[in-house]
Specification:
The chain is mainly α. The protein has helices at 2-17, 24-34, 36-46, 48-63, 70-90, 93-107, 110-121, 123-176. This is DUF2059 domain-containing protein.
């Protein structure tokens, strides 16, 4: 009796720990239902304004004045174009598909993959997926705003540190003479 209970316990524990690995076919079906390739491209298109803003801030921080001149704005636009092109290359589906494939297989078991397929195949699941780029865009706006203030604070910190280092350098030169 004890052996039977032990065998059942081991069997139960094993089934929990060793949930079925999802097949490549199931993961591909999930990515297809989720339209991940289209989602990535729409997300990149929707974050273009944030990339423009980032480029503007970078150029503004380099030139150290509040308003960009027309030639500086052209440089900011060129930088934004390059950032956008690089982002498109970085998240191209042919690059991302194998990465997503591995992540989904590593993180989810077969039952979880199937549950997602079922959910994202439903009208409410599709509605949520269609709003995902908007969520990404709004998140990017918040992050850019926060990063811009962090950059400004960091620049101020660097200026203070440079001032302290210059004072130390002058003190060291003064005491060595």
């Amino acid at each position: 009796m004890k052996q039977w209970m032990l065998a059942c316990g081991i069997s139960f524990f094993s089934s929990i720990c060793l949930a079925a690995q999802p097949s490549d076919q199931a993961v591909n079906k999930l990515m297809q239902v989720m339209k991940l390739d289209q989602l990535l491209q729409r997300t990149i298109q929707q974050i273009r304004p944030q990339l423009d803003q980032q480029a503007y801030m970078v150029v503004k921080n380099i030139v150290q004045h509040e308003q960009l001149t027309p030639p500086e704005q052209i440089v900011a636009n060129q930088l934004a174009d390059k950032m956008y092109q690089q982002s498109q290359k970085t998240v191209a589906w042919k690059e991302m598909q194998p990465i997503y494939q591995k992540i989904y297989k590593d993180v989810y078991n077969a039952e979880e993959i199937q549950a997602q397929i079922d959910f994202y195949s439903s009208p409410i699941g599709q509605s949520i997926l269609n709003k995902t780029p908007q969520v990404a865009q709004e998140s990017m706006k918040v992050m850019n705003s926060r990063l811009a203030s962090t950059i400004q604070a960091t620049e101020k910190d660097f200026q203070e540190i440079n001032t302290q280092l210059e004072q130390l350098k002058k003190s060291a030169q003064g005491s060595s003479q």
